[in-house]
Amino acid sequence: MEFEGAFRYFPKSEATWHIVKSDHGIGPRAASFMNKALYARAQELGVRFLVETPGKKILMEEGKVAGVLATDKDGEEVKISCKAAIICTGGAGANKELIKEETGYIHGVDMFNFAIPGIMGDGLKMAWEAGVDKLPVRIEQAAVLVGTEELAGSVCNVFSQPNLLVNRNGKRFMNEDQMQNTTFMSNALSHQKDRTGFSIVDSSIVKYYMRNGVDNVSLVHPDADVSDFAEGVKTAQENGVGNLIVADTIEELAEKAGINVENLVATVEDYNDYCESVDEEFFKDRRYMRPIEKAPFYCARFCPGGYGTVGGIRINENCEACDKDFEPIPGLYAAGADACNIYEDSYMFLLPGNSMGFAVNTGRIAGMTAAEYVQE
Ligand SMILES: Cc1cc2nc3c(=O)[nH]c(=O)nc-3n(C[C@H](O)[C@H](O)[C@H](O)COP(=O)(O)OP(=O)(O)OC[C@H]3O[C@@H](n4cnc5c(N)ncnc54)[C@H](O)[C@@H]3O)c2cc1C
User: Which of 53, 79, 325, 352 is most exposed, with minimal Cβ within 10 Å?
Assistant: First the structure.
């Protein structure tokens, strides 16, 4: 693999985000070039791929792995005999029931994680059924702006800036200058009513950003230019995007968004005072202290989100899948999100790329250990 380099997701993070070299530079879908390179190399080595043939069961004989049962696209059972199997089905990000059972979050209500089709937790169930110790399955969290995906990128960019952030009770709940670490934000949101927060800006702030660009950009939202914000808001209003509110007074904004009116008015008053002195509540960086004074006012809803699930299969340092006594189950290995028990409910944003890094490295370790086991 070739990489563009190792990058920081935001200034306070480490430069650990290894971005794969693609034919279109840094941007969405770069990682697919890694899949293509690995696929080509595997083909060279004579690996046989069975697509649309999900594994369903690990076959055990005398306490050791003896094969895998799968079903092909015509519903026919496929039996693969083998001495070793590596489970790496990517977690359960698209399995709403499993997410609810394991984490309490309800996808589409208070959890807006990526739900990549086909990632249903098959490997977790196969491992648990084969006797592997079941560890908690967690969402790899990072906050998201809800319901604005179809709008111009500038909408998300403006509301992600470190301005005023309140909960349904109209109170601030974290230092907004940490909003770029969307995992910190998601963790804080998880403790609010309806697991909801509202990012609020006024028209002076919007005007400032439209003229000068936003305060913070990342490689995911690299463009500081938000000159099409007004257009994005107009589209939202036409399309009835209920999570983006525009109002002429703070009271109206609160009412429309479902925020405690009295508290929000008081919070805005206090916040505007802090802008002239010091943020007595969170000691936010002065550079981002801009008063909320001039109509129209805008707010948008943030909720916990995430990349998918992590964890569930106990492994040891050799990526051997282990039972409750921490004893390896002979011939069974696990890697990637299915076995990633180290982050709990957070994407470790200070070390960006850690999740893919864990998948790549555990995949490699599991492969080496399994090959050694089979040779022996
Ligand atoms: C939009 C998005 C952006 C991300 N950005 C980053 C990032 O910038 N940095 C980072 O570190 N991480 C990122 N991640 C997380 C990262 O992609 C995952 O941690 C990583 O892909 C996990 O690798 P894996 O091999 O465990 O699972 P996957 O890459 O999900 O692969 C699992 C494979 O198993 C297949 N499968 C499922 N069920 C079965 C079955 N029953 N039988 C056979 N095959 C099956 C699936 O089809 C899939 O091909 C991102 C994730 C998403 C969704």
Answer: 325
Sequence ranges of the domains in the chain: 50-103+118-136+313-375, 144-303
Could you check whether 50-103+118-136+313-375 and 144-303 share the same CATH topology? no
Q: Which residues pair with 17 in a beta bridge?
A: 7
Residue 20 Cα to ligand 1 middle (Å): 15
Q: What is the pTM of this model?
A: 0.93
Written out in words, the top-level CATH class of the domain with range 144-303 is alpha beta
Instruction: Please state which of the four CATH numbers 3.40.50.10490, 3.50.50.60, 3.40.120.10, 3.30.70.260 is assigned to the domain occupying 50-103+118-136+313-375.
Output: 3.50.50.60
Q: How far is CA 43 from CA 14, 18, 335, in A?
A: 35, 25, 21
| Closest by CA position to 10, among listed 160, 164, 155 | 160
Written as tens digits, the pLDDT of the chain (376 aa) is 899 999 998 888 999 999 999 998 887 788 899 999 999 999 999 999 999 999 999 999 999 999 999 999 999 999 999 999 999 999 999 999 999 999 999 999 999 999 999 999 999 999 999 999 999 999 999 999 998 888 888 999 999 999 999 999 999 999 999 999 999 999 999 999 999 999 999 999 999 999 999 999 888 777 889 999 999 999 999 998 889 999 999 999 999 999 999 999 999 999 999 999 999 999 999 999 999 999 999 999 999 999 999 999 999 999 999 999 999 999 999 999 999 999 888 888 889 999 999 999 999 999 999 999 999 9
**DSSP of 264-327:** HHHHHHHHHHHHHS--TTT---GGG-----SSSEEEEEEE-EEEEEE--B-B-TT-EEE-TTS-
The pick from 307, 313, 354, 365 for probing ligand 1's pocket by mutation, whose C-beta has the most ligand atoms within 8 angstroms, reads 307
Nearest CA owner, ligand 1 atom 11: 353
